[in-house]
Amino acid sequence: MSYEGKIYRPWMEADSELIQVTLGCSVNTCTFCSMFRDKSFRRKPLEEIFADIEMLRRYRPRVESIFLIDGNVMVLKTEFLLKVIAKINETFPELKNLAMYSGLNDLRRKSVEELAQLRAAGVTTLYAGLESGDAGILADIRKGMTQEQAIEGMELAKAAGIRVLLSVIFGLGGRDRSRAHIEETTRLLNILKPEELAPMALAIQPGTELEQQVRDGTFVMPTPLQVLEEEKYLLENLDNFEHFYWGDHGNNIAHMRGWMPKYRDKFLEHIEMQIAENPVVKQEELVTYVW
Fold first, then answer.
1. Handedness of CA 262, 158, 73, 211 (dihedral sign)
2. 10 Å Cβ neighbour count for 86?
3. Which of 200, 208, 215, 214 has the alpha carbon at shortest distance from 288?
4. Radius of gyration of the chain (CA)
5. How far is the CA of 124 from the CAs of 7, 8, 68, 157, 223, in angstroms?
6. pLDDT, tens digit, for every residue of 257-266?
7. Could you tell me the pTM of the whole model?
């Protein structure tokens, strides 16, 4: 397989085979992220992608789940994506799941008809980063997306029947804006109603603008207690729309996953226990690990 550069995938896709369709991320400006700073965004040639698909078939007698990498693969033209997906379906008739990274803005650039074509072709889940629902924080982290654009992108995905997993980052507002961050994020999530939600605690990545902001004091890391209180607020205030909660990222203080709102009470009991008993809450600054 002709992978280029560092390779990333969501922890939920640990058992999926990876096909590299793009290099890097077409946005690549987020202040907290260094995942694709070593690459200039480009689409891989179709013949190289096809060669990787054929090679995977030679080495795997059965493939039921594939995740397309690198960054926002959905930014590519629908015609190109349909060719890739057709080759995958032809090569792996047993396939059950086909997922990829996508920006919510990438969805806005496609029509409902295009997205429905992709869903009919076999796309099951898109992974998109919301990170925060606070307009000021979205601007500060240079996400290149507004609240209104996030809503528009999700509406298109829902109209096309494509499942969306949204990620949010506890602590992204720092110590001073923790409450505003989680209140606005929860409010926006109640509008977006994702089918899956993946919250994770903030991790400062080496070489990012956010790392420099921490060093010069313009961004003050939240406390572990603030991060736990953010998650508690989220769980208490999410509306009763059904979604799968992936709260077991390695950087999270409280690890839990399952269906919401079914397990809301159990999750809240776990959070309250962490707040009451976990010695980490006495620390003055959140400490997490790089991706």
1. negative
2. 12
3. 200
4. 19
5. 21, 19, 12, 11, 37
6. 999 999 999 9
7. 0.96
